[in-house]
Fold this protein.
Amino acid sequence: MNKFIATIIIEIVITILTGLISFDHGTKTPDGELTERNSQLMTEVVYWKTKASELPPPDDDSGNPTNPKLEDEFNSVRMELNKANNDISTLNKQLREARDNLTTAENNFSDANREISTLRTQLEEIRNNPPVSIPLADSGYLVDISPAYKSSGAVEYSSKFADGNSFEIDGETYYNGLTLSGEGGASSHKLNKKYTKITGILGYVAKGTDLGYGHLDVYLDDKLVHEIPVTTDMKARQFNIDVTGIAQLRFELESTYATYGYANVTIE
């Protein structure tokens, strides 16, 4: 991904996460509200217990009411006391749930902070390592852009050469490419990891004097990747080689003394 785009995306994510986890510490939390209500109810319970203790017993020793009015008042106080106790039980349950929710929120808050810290570290790395512009490599004929730095039994041809030499494959004349002759003919070229593919035409060179069967080998960074059988009666054939990330290319002729060629070899 383009580092500039990655920078913008990370900054947006940081802004969103920071907004989600920020809150006003002056706002009363559900936990605080429930705790305050609990305290109020506890005060009511104490009040009603005190009120009940101040009333005379509604019954005498035989269980007969001593004062019907006092009995009604006593029952009323008892109902209020029971109601207050039930409210306290309900609030205690709500308080536990609120504290559980608060714990979950605090954990989410910590996770979000860690995520922001990671994103900020990535953003800092991008800012400290700006993208480097890599110039595009030239494309064209191999022998013009990267002539052989080492060869044996090889001849290079280019329309830019003053001699105007050429070679023939399958009845066609070519002015760009290279030919390999004899056992062990080879041509090595530096690509410096600047190219993605090489294309061209492969075939028997008609003016060759020696007949023979063998194979043309293609090495990429000293690793054999193609072994192409060749014969003197073969037809010209197209080839396309992926050289992405390759630093060095080598063509090598094996097991024959005939001459074979790579025509119009183009790199891009």
User: Anything to note?
Assistant: Confidence is low (pLDDT under 50) at residues 20-28. The longest helix spans residues 68-128. The two ends are 23 Å apart (CA to CA).
